[in-house]
């Protein structure tokens, strides 16, 4: 019997998760390196508009965080909803603090 077939709960067999193997990890590692190189190239080019470079760096950072959390911290797997909810709550609280700090510094 293969490990990817579903068995009834009370049949006496233990359920095993399929092993992903290194292929997906290698692809994600290469993606992380490419995202880092794109961000580095935008800054090292020198002739790039500063506003565009900052926006590009922020977008690359957000994509990098999603890739790192999804694959290296295994948040894409089942059973990780509570950690994801708490992290999103933390991001919301931190973002609110940053926005309010900027508001107080520049507009008051």
From TrEMBL:
GO terms for molecular function: oxidoreductase activity. This is Cytochrome c oxidase subunit 4B. It is a multi-pass membrane protein. It is an enzyme of class 1 (oxidoreductase). The keyword NAD does not apply. The gene is caaD. It comes from Paenibacillus pseudetheri. The chain crosses the membrane at residues 26-46, 52-72, 84-106. Keywords: Cell membrane, Membrane, Oxidoreductase, Transmembrane, Transmembrane helix. Pfam families: COX4_pro. Its EC number is 1.9.3.1. It is found in: Cell membrane. Belongs to the cytochrome c oxidase bacterial subunit 4 family. It comes from the Bacteria. InterPro entries: Cyt_c_oxidase_su4_prok (IPR005171), Cytochrome_c_oxidase_bac_sub4 (IPR050968).
């Amino acid at each position: 019997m293969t490990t990817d077939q579903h068995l009834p709960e009370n049949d006496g067999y233990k359920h095993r998760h399929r092993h992903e193997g290194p292929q997906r990890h290698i692809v994600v590692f290469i993606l992380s390196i490419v995202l880092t190189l794109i961000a580095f190239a935008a800054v090292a080019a020198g002739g790039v508009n500063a506003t565009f470079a900052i926006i590009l760096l922020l977008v690359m950072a957000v994509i990098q965080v999603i890739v790192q959390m999804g694959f290296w911290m295994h948040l894409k797997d089942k059973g990780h909803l509570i950690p994801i909810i708490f992290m999103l709550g933390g991001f919301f609280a931190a973002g609110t603090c940053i926005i309010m700090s900027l508001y107080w510094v520049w507009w008051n």
